[in-house]
Amino acid sequence: MRRCMAGDWKVCTEIANCASDMNGVTGAELLIALPSEVRIVSLQSGTINSYWIGSQYATLRDGVRDFDGVAGNEIAMAQGGNGNLLILRPRAGYLQTINGAGTFGSSWTLVDYVNLDGVAGDEIRVRSNTNNRIYRVYPLSGTVSAE
Fold first, then answer.
1. Is residue 87 a contact partner of residue 139, using CB atoms and an 8 Å limit?
2. What is the mean pLDDT of each successive set of 10 residues along the chain, which is 147 residues long?
3. Closest to 141 measured CA to CA, from 112, 120, 113, 110
4. Are strands 143-146 and 108-114 parallel, antiparallel or unpaired?
5. Is the pTM of this model over 0.85?
């Protein structure tokens, strides 16, 4: 691979959240966090896929995991400024945005991950910092419900 990544970047430092099967093909991919985008590097295929976020973001604690029940982990992130919950799906090649307007709002805290709906793939539990309620986010459908 001869592609250089100039500028302000870092390799994710929590191994469980950095190197993981993210495309459903044998072998781990590497997550590289840049200021306004995420890059996924596949050493097997030699490809680098970029996903533009456009603002500050952070991967959630233990946020590289199975959210849809299909081989290849997804990446859960919080988007700064608007409080969106983002799910990056490297296998499918897209970034899903879940807006908390009317539910958990723009200020929230990760509670944990659960699988209580009987469907493969985890749900994400968040606590609204505005109303202190806990909400369950279903990444597969993009829906949110109060507990």
1. yes
2. 41 66 89 89 91 89 93 93 93 94 94 95 96 97 96
3. 120
4. unpaired
5. yes
